[in-house]
Write a structure and sequence with these properties.
The chain is α+β, with helices and mostly antiparallel strands. It contains twelve helices and 13 strands. The protein has three domains: 179 residues, 3-Layer(aba) Sandwich (Rossmann fold), CATH 3.40.50; 57 residues; 88 residues, no CATH class. The structure holds flavin-adenine dinucleotide (FAD).
Length: 357
């Protein structure tokens, strides 16, 4: 996709995959209803406005459940607003490729999470499209919409009124309600111990593509320190960013703090959880103190993003070793072993991928 693999010589590519530019960014006028400032859906809008694609394939919400993603083919720029926001769940985005092509849409944009983009790239050549733009978002973990509703019910007495949820990079979950209330819950105060151990399926717990490496542009928030975080991965991605012109404010991403101790602590908790969710054991008062300290002294900006990618890599190895040991060989690419090495995880003789032809 990018004409080259991730380079271990270029800073941060080991963690985030190939990129030409990495930026902190915000729309000058954030879009109403967007998850962050709406860069993702605005790029889709601009592609339609400027006639560069016939359709954008993305997710809207199920009319009966705002949290349930529903794949949609959007052909009018003004309809992109209906796709704004994050929904939790799986939905067959790529099942729209054939109907879109059948309707004569030969220049497409697809907005997707990494597992969708991975499959899209595998199919791309046989689709024979005239143009394809891929806008990816990072994805840490996903779960079924039903399971997500169980989580919401643990967070509030009136879960049906929650309209927005985000795991922010300042170690807080932000909740917004339909009556304008906003609540911020420190990660450490989340009721994780009350969730079933398989809340996130094994496929997500062992995913090695957090940052959507095969997208032309990745639009997230992890490395943005309160703003959005862009990885422009190739020339198509650069054209997508250009479409936003002066609507987007960009700056260099910052970085602060050190991740090693945090990832090590997380690793201990994952091992102790024996396949379930990694819970931090500490008394309530300490939980509050650490919850206050984390946004101030914990990893921030790019270091926060590296921390999360390292944690996912560590989880992948631990969960596969426990639940599907024969799969390590095919599911753990060499760069993931590099990421986990500093934490004392190294491949056994039957765990390493054979070098490709
Ligand atoms: C399950 C999940 C986990 C995520 N985890 C992270 C993370 O850990 N770190 C991070 O930086 N970003 C993560 N994101 C992406 C993040 O939530 C924002 O979508 C992203 O930062 C873009 O913000 P925006 O304001 O530009 O998006 P908007 O302009 O509001 O657009 C959001 C886009 O995401 C699409 N979308 C929403 N829900 C889904 C879904 N379930 N499946 C596929 N597409 C969907 C929408 O259709 C829309 O096109 C995750 C997204 C999902 C769906």
């Amino acid at each position: 996709m990018h004409g080259r693999a991730r380079s271990t010589e270029r800073p941060d590519e080991l963690h985030f995959g190939p990129f030409d530019r990495m930026l902190r960014a915000s729309l000058v006028r954030p879009s109403t209803g967007a998850q962050w400032t709406g860069i993702t859906t605005r790029i889709g809008e601009r592609l339609l406005e400027t006639g560069q694609v016939d359709a954008v394939l993305t997710m809207t919400a199920d009319p009966a459940d705002r949290w349930r993603p529903q794949p949609v083919i959007i052909t009018r720029a003004e309809d992109m607003a209906s796709a704004r926001g994050m929904r939790m769940g799986y939905a067959p985005l790529l099942s729209l490729l054939e109907p879109a092509i059948a309707r004569g849409h030969r220049r497409l944009a697809v907005i997707g999470i990494p597992c969708q983009v991975y499959a899209l790239r595998a199919l791309e050549r046989e689709l024979g499209l005239d143009a394809l733009y891929v806008i990816g978002t990072p994805c840490s973990d996903n779960t079924t919409t039903e399971r997500f509703h169980e989580f919401l019910a643990l967070l509030a007495d009136d879960p049906a009124r929650i309209t927005y949820l985000e795991f922010r990079a300042d170690y807080h979950v932000e909740l917004r309600f339909d009556d304008g209330r906003v609540r911020e819950i420190p990660f450490l105060q989340l009721p994780l111990s009350r969730l079933p151990p398989d809340f996130f399926p094994l496929t997500c717990r062992t995913c090695v593509d957090y940052t959507n490496v095969l997208a032309d542009i990745t639009v997230g928030y992890m490395g943005g320190q309160g703003e959005q975080w862009l990885l422009v991965r190739n020339a198509r991605g650069a054209r997508l960013l250009e479409l936003l012109g002066s609507e987007v404010r960009i700056s260099e991403p910052g970085t602060a703090g050190k991740r090693t101790a945090h990832v090590k602590g997380f690793m201990t908790n994952v091992e102790r959880a024996a396949g379930g969710l990694p819970l931090r054991r500490m008394p309530g008062w300490l939980r509050r103190v650490v919850g206050w300290l984390m946004p101030r002294i914990g990893p921030r900006g790019l270091e926060f993003a590296r921390t999360r990618v390292d944690m996912k890599a560590v989880e992948t190895v631990i969960h596969l070793r426990r639940e599907q040991p024969r799969r390590l060989k095919s599911m753990v690419p060499p760069h993931v072993w590099r990421l986990v090495e500093p934490y004392g995880l190294t491949p056994g003789p039957d765990e390493r991928q054979e070098p490709g032809p």
